[in-house]
Amino acid sequence: MGDQIQTLKGFRDFVGSQARKRKWLIKKIETVFERFGYEPLETPALEYESLLLGKYGTEADKLIYGFEDRGGRRVALRYDQTIPTARVISEYQNQLALPYKRYQMQQVWRADKPQKGRYREFLQCDADIIGTTAISAEAEILTLYAAIYTEIGLDSLKIKVNDREDLIKTLETTGIPLDKIFTVIQTIDKLDKKSKDEVRDELGQKGIESEVAKSLLSTLESQKVSEKLQKIISLAESMGVKKEIFTFSPTLARGLDYYTGMIFEGFIPEYKGGSVGGGGRYDKLLKQLVEVELPAVGFGLGFDRTLEAAEQLDKVPSLVTTALVLVTVFSPELTDKSIEVANYLRYNKVPTEIYLDSEKKLDRQLKYANKKDIPFVIIIGPEEVGKNIVKLKDMRSGDQKSIELSECISSILSR
Asked: Alpha helix locations (H) across 153-265?
C-alpha cells in the first residue's frame, strides 16, 4: 500500500466552517490585545535544538521534535513560545521599549501521546509584560485576560487567584523539605481534579509524612489573601474587571516551577473541559533561560478549549461564512453584468462571490450557495438588466425581491 492520504496522528485539518470559526476567535482575541496596546510577535517554527533542550525538564525534552537539517545543523520545532520570546528579548533588548508588552499566536509542536484534547500540533496564544515588577502589570494581565472573554461573550468567566510566594512560605512553615517544595506544589495543583485523600496519598509516595500532609492541606485551606494579592485584585477591579469574577484559591499552585508571585487560572463554569488558560508572575525565568535579568508576568490562553466553550454556549456566530452574497450568472451573455455587480458590492465592502461557470444552470448555482451556506443570492436576468435592478434572494427564508443595486447593501449587511 502506498502513502496514506490522511493527516499524521495528533495533527488536524481545519476545513470550511471550522477554519472560519478559528479565524473568528483569533480576530476577537487579537482585537483585544491590540486595544490594550500589545505588540504582535512572530518567531520561526525552527530554532537551534540546543536553545530548547534542557529548558523544560527531562520529560519535556523527550517531546521536542528535533532533527538534523540538510546543512548538518541540529534544529527543533518550536515547543512553546516562552523560549523563543526569551531569545528575542536577549537578541533585541536594546531595540525594545521596556516594559515590552507582546502577544503571540502561533503553532507549537510536541511529540506527545495523542488523546482527547491533546494534539501534537496546536495553536498557543500568549501575552506578557516584560521588564517591570509593578503590581499594576499583574492587574493589567488579569484585566486583559478577562476582557478577551467579555469580547467573545463568555461573561460567566471565573478567575481563581493565588500568591505563589505566599504558598511557598506556607510549605516551608509546615515542615516540607526545601528540596521537595516544587514536587509537592505539582501534587497540590491536582486538588481540583483529585480528592484530598488521593492528594495525601500522592504526597506520601513523595516521602511526605501523613501528619505533615494533613497539616499542610488544613493550613492551606485556612489561608488568607495576601496584602499584595488584595492590591492586585483591587487594581484589576479599577481597570474594569467585575469583583465577582475573582475567587481566592489558596491551593491553586500552577505546576510549573518558575512562578514567583501572583498566579491565576480561568474557568467557564458551564464548560466541563477544564481551565481555559492561566498564568502569573515569573521574575527569574529569563535569567535562567538566556541570562537576561528582567521580571515578567503573563498568561497562556487555551485556544481550543475557549473555542469549544464558545461553541457550547452558542457564542460563535451561527452564520460563519466567507461570502454574504453569491452573484449568479444568468447566461454567458450577461457575464459582464454579473462581474459589474460583484465589483460594486466588493468596493462597498460586502463579502461577495461570483459564480465562475456561466454555462451552469441557475438551479445548480443556487444549490452551490446552499451548500456553502451563503445567505443571499443576486440574480440578474435580461428583465433585471432592462429595468436596471437586481433580484435579491434570501436563501434561508426563500423570500426574494426586485430592488436597485444600491439598496442591496443595507439588506445584506442588516441580515
From this structure: 164-173, 181-188, 196-205, 210-221, 227-238
